[in-house]
């Protein structure tokens, strides 16, 4: 075991290999306040990557309703239960053990193996709300006492991947150029150690090819400066893919760094597991705070408070409008004079949008024609 720094935990931790951060790190930010669970992302991924034999059950991108949904079944509850007590210190560092530190001596990580049946209900719990809504019930103050929210999930191309740590064949590697984690299909022997070890359950076994597979971060697109399929097809425009820096190297004009480091409104999920996952979520403002704290850690209150104040921040507003406005990777953005612009790696402008769309309101009654109007064709 080596000592590595995990900035999500604000401390060093044990990991099987030495710290080796890639030149840059693939990352996605999701605004959970905007996801509508249309599953367009899921199908965009499915039709691109997992329409072959043995992949029928796979959803490298899935969207589950929290708190009841989970693909595979109850993956998060089972990992948290196995890990045991998780405490955060007052200074914001994680005081408990990660899945690597809590592992028994013969294992690389605390883990569980999903059974075949656990993968059979990708939509379980969809739209099921926490608590019963009485007839005539209504939404009162925030956060709501009856709540659910949608959680889209891909592989997090973790800085400290458990899949990679557990592979006895060293078939899993993390690319230096973008931090994407891949399984070398020719080295993999299908032992399934990665499937067991990944706490997010994003490595999957193909019973036809008899090797493991996982989300490839749409690396062929990323190499061309294009964002992944699940991002560019997102109907709700809730996602932006780019590159996240460690805190000391964060740049305010990098869209991901801006949301993660400068505004601190986008948080990793289950950071206490210790993988430094590189998908970040703007938490839903309406859901139960204790549940969100368990999922996103103690920074969740501040993140929600700052998110609710974004209407006073034109730069942040501009970036939220840029999300979903281009299929290209935005390496830099700027907001000026009511317009938000995004730039590619060479500095060329690739998108420009107004921060506030002009709204034209039609009167409900047309005086000239003496006719009522409605929006039904
Ligand atoms: S496409 Fe976007 S809005 Fe639709 S389910 Fe996926 S993440 Fe949510
Ligand atoms: S989410 Fe799972 S499969 Fe993806 S890199 Fe992390 S440990 Fe590996």
Through-space gap between termini:
66 Å
Query: Briefly, what CATH class?
Result: Alpha Beta
Structural class: alpha+beta
CATH topology: Alpha-Beta Plaits
Question: Can you describe this structure in just a few lines?
Answer:
The chain is built from ten helices and 17 strands. The chain has helices at residues 40-49, 75-83, 162-166, 193-197, 219-222, 229-232, 255-262, 289-296, 300-308, 314-322, and strands spanning 2-6, 11-15, 25-31, 62-66, 149-153, 172-174, 181-183, 203-206, 211-214, 239-244, 267-268, 279-282, 332-336, 339-343, 349-354, 365-366, 371-372.
Features:
Alpha-Beta Plaits; alpha+beta; 377 residues; globular; binds iron/sulfur cluster; 19% strand; 3-stranded antiparallel sheet; 17 strands
